[in-house]
Amino acid sequence: MKKAFILALTAMVVSASFSTLEAAKKKKKDKEQAPVEVLAPVVLANGCDSVSYAAGEALTNGLIPYLLQQDVDTALMADFVVGLRQALSRLEVAKNDPKEKARLAGEQIASQLVNGMLPSVKRDFTDTPDTIIDETFFRGFADAVLGDTTVMDFKAADALFKDKKQYNKNVKTEKLTKAGREFLEENAKKEGVLTTASGLQYKVITMGEGEVPKRTDKVKVHYEGRLIDGTVFDASSKHGTEPASFRADQVIRGWTEALTMMPVGSKWQLFIPQHLAYGERQTGQIPPYSTLIFDVELVEIEKKDEEKK
Q1: Catalytic residues
Q2: Which terminus of the chain, N or C, has less C-beta within 10 A?
């Protein structure tokens, strides 16, 4: 059975690499739906019939949005039903047919490869010296499950892949952080810009005379955030006329450090290196490893009810 699974998977994968993927890239010209199969009228003779039918219908909730996410043309639902019924028939056969069961397993893994694993690997190697080639990727996968070590054994392949992935991650990181690092180096030379031990840079526009927040204090601030190319990615004004409200230790590290140095009434400009911001995470409009600029006005520290008395 194991051999049958491997053979079926290999046939599917190799075939997909040379034909199925190419076909999938072409737009479907014929939008006509498959003829709807004429089925016997539904007869709900008892409670079990009713609840069974209702369960099947109820479980389609959310199906259309899911299919749209999978880039399925929902105008062709008759074709979807044809495929559904064919698959159900094959699954029934597979209960007693190991070869059919293996082929179905291969098709399921093919879907995971094409829609999940391969795109993920390609993302890791985007904007790096190396490129992942679909056909060669599928061939490596097929040879591995067959135990074919003619080209490369698994240990060597695993080591090469991991080394290249880490190397290219370092290359990408260096490329993405270079602009921010150079910006901060030049910015540090400008008049009025101060740099803390952590690497945070700030410029005092107005120095307030109020209380300085503690890390656990809830504060109100007006702010605008920009990338170093000037792109505004967020601002308190986008969320209404009132200042934003949050605890000083529940924001990025660069904000926490600045807020716990700012007296109420201050307006500062912050220049936050990526390691004090979002690091390698993509956050909304903010690319990974971004140095950020914020104009921040500390309006007040929100007092607890018992402190107001």
Answers
A1: 223, 233-234, 252, 278, 294
A2: C
For 221-244, b/e burial (b = at least 16 CB within 10 A) is bbbbbebbeeeebbebeeeeeebb
User: What whole-number distance in Å separates Cα of residue 289 and Cα of residue 276?
Assistant: 10
Provide the pLDDT for residue 25. Answer: 45
Number of residues that this document lists for the chain: 309
What is the rounded distance in angstroms from the CA atom of residue 61 to the CA atom of residue 272? Answer: 45
Residue 19 has pLDDT above 60, yes or no: no
β-bridge pairing 218-227 and 292-302: antiparallel
Neighbours of 282 (CB within 10 A): 11
Q: How far apart are CA 278 and CA 265, in angstroms?
A: 27
Mean pLDDT for all residues in the chain: 87
CA-CA distance, 74 to 90, in Å (whole number)?
A: 23
CB 164 within 8 A of CB 130: yes
pLDDT digits (tens, 9 = 90+) for 43-79: 999 999 999 999 999 999 999 999 998 889 999 999 9
Distance from chain centroid for Cα 150: 36
Cα 172–173–178 angle (5° rounding)?
105
- Residues paired with residue 7 on neighbouring β-strands, in sequence order: none
Reported as a single tens digit per residue, the pLDDT across 105-147 is 999 999 999 999 999 999 888 888 899 999 999 999 999 999 9
Tokens of 304: 């607890």
Given a contact cutoff of 8 angstroms between Cβ atoms, the answer to whether 247 and 216 are in contact is yes
- Predicted confidence at residue 272, as pLDDT, reads 98
- Are 216 and 303 contacting, i.e. CB atoms less than 8 angstroms apart? no
